[in-house]
Amino acid sequence: MNALLAPGARNAALVFIFITVLIDVLAFGVIIPVLPHLVQEFVGGDTSTAAYWTGAFAFSFSLVQFFSAPIQGALSDRYGRRPVILISCLGLGLDFVFMALAPSLAWLFVGRIISAVTSASFTTANAYIADVTAPEGRAKAFGMIGAAFGLGFIVGPLIGGVLGDIDHRLPFWFAAGLALINFCYGLFVLPESLHKDKRTPRFDWTHAKPMGGVKMLRDYPQIWGLVAVVFIANFAHYVYPSTFVLFADAAYGWKEKQAGYVLSVVGVLSVIVNVLLVGRLVKAFGERRAVMFGLACGTLGFLIYGLAGTGWMFMLGLPISALWAIAAPATQALITKQVPADAQGRIQGSMSSLVSLAGIFAPALFAGAFGFFIGPLAPVRMPGIAFLIASLLLAIAAFVAWRFTDSAHLPAKAAGEPAA
């Protein structure tokens, strides 16, 4: 365990990270119900055109993160986790102000690019968790991060939907305030987690390059199967930011408020799963089986979404797809057990690059399929097509987890791994 933090301080540090991630997720969550509608407003109200532009926004966001995430990971390995988290929170807050004032679609697009550069705290938070928790406790700790995401998506979209119903710009101002509060909070209470003697001796540009960071994964062939699962599952997850808000409008007539309410229900279920079920189910199933169980639930949940002809049928899929949340912390735990302490930040940065690489292509697929199948050239109107594609992808991820991670459930102790 990291000697920098005393035993009592470790739990406090996890609480600090939980709150940091929570506030960041709240800041992002409040704009989810309104950003596609703001784009729709700029393009004259056409849903199909707005879907293509929303996909372009998500494509560009992930493209920029593909380049910036490994730099952030390498910086946190060299200079510590705390400064990276603080700088990202400050930049994010200022960028939300920029987007709130954007006078056109072009300027809103620029603001979204800036937020891709500054949103570093999620990647660094994962490395922070690996710094301060014993290997056997990491799945539960990563579940806390999942709970922060869930809790943020309970309150964030709900607030965003209500504020967006008043003015589409108001949620951006609210998000700016949250991110700046987060910066002030971290400035005074967030301790450093990576001791100086565990940091890399210099900033490594080889690992800071996007493909350089990905190439680093070649040094850890034991995690390749797990990395493939992370990539495919995150590719599927992009169906939400790419299509959900416009899909809900096109399929069921749900506007900002209704979409915010549904996303809040998703958040409630995510918190329940992460807080009450992740630790128990990972302990009962083992990490490998927990990964496959979570992916199977996600596959079924997305299938229900894609085929649901009414809103209440869509809601039936929510508790099933919520169990997908079990897969992510179990996968993260398996990966971190096989990576040494001084490489955790770079590995997390490398995986974030892969997630961003998935996000480069996923919005084009999901938003493009959605836009086409609700447009005038569609052979049949099928708003749920993107969810059906995501369901197929999660089924593939489950197969990969079953086929290529036979030895991952009993990993060898990573070189340099601190004793619990």
UniProtKB/TrEMBL annotation:
It comes from the Bacteria. GO terms for cellular component: membrane. The keyword Transmembrane applies. Residues 13-409 form the Major facilitator superfamily (MFS) profile domain. One of its GO terms (molecular function) is transmembrane transporter activity. It comes from Thermomonas carbonis. InterPro entries: MFS, MFS_dom, MFS_trans_sf, Tet-R_TetA/multi-R_MdtG-like. It is a multi-pass membrane protein. The chain crosses the membrane at residues 12-35, 50-71, 83-101, 107-129, 141-164, 170-190, 223-240, 260-278, 290-308, 355-378, 384-404. The lineage of its organism: Bacteria, Pseudomonadati, Pseudomonadota, Gammaproteobacteria, Lysobacterales. Keywords: Membrane, Transmembrane, Transmembrane helix, Transport. This is TCR/Tet family MFS transporter. It is found in: Membrane.
